[in-house]
Amino acid sequence: MKKIILSIVLTLAISLSAMAEIKRSPNRMGNQLTVTFDCPWNVLCKEAIRYSPSCPDPDVKLDVYYPKNFKSPDYKPVPCLLMIHGGGWSMGNEKKFAMFAAYAASRGYVVACISYRLLPEFELEDCIEDCWLALKWLKQNAASFGGNPGKIGVIGGSAGGHLTAMLATAQESQICKKVFADGTDPSIQAAVPMAPVTDLYSSAKRFSRVFKDAPDAKERAKEASPVSYVSAKSAPMHILHSRGDKTVPISESENLQKKYKEFKLECPITYYDSSNHAFWNTHPIGAERMQSWTDAIDIFDKILK
Length: 305
Hints:
The protein is of the alpha/beta class. Helices cover 34% and strands 16% of the residues.
């Protein structure tokens, strides 16, 4: 009887321990609207893939949009895109770019829309790590959906633009080296950050909420800034930004462009005559939104196809 009771107690303790490790972000949906739409006729979707099974947040997932004909005898693998939502690193999920992803897939891409761990339940470094993990997952699984893992572009807006720029520049960061310690190549071939935050170090006070006034905030801000990592090996980049953006000023994009130019790398900026920060995401069928989608995929076409 004692053995049975002991076994039950141990099982309960293990179960409670496992439950304690689960941590969700209650503000994940934030101001996000739920929009129902039909995928294009030539696109399939596989949803709710746990790309990091050991992640303590069970809501960290990705959806894959891919060509319907990928098993046809004459099919040739297509480039891949990783889409990273914004939301101040504190809200959003893999559905935020769903319509954009379906559109991109209809134009001949395998697209992974991701969610990642969020503030304040987690740290900015966790957001960054999840994006590297999602990239690694895409490289290792692209072929299963008809994608070419050697041709990957990344796109995201605002906080997602920051994370996009990190994946384009920060292959020498400690987080990247940790995720890719198995020797998988972390490089990407193209990046389109939209209204990206690029320098947290110079704006450490502005982003104090991100680092919670930690004594090492400045060091962490520098390590989380794309401008800290630009090198001759940085991925080709093309930035999209509204001229009148008051949330993330265009200087964030222009400073990253200057860093690229120091290494004689191209980093064009397409400016929109608007004051709309999230021009890619505000109105479901708005002209500005659709124009930015078209511009982004045209950019990827030039680089990846």
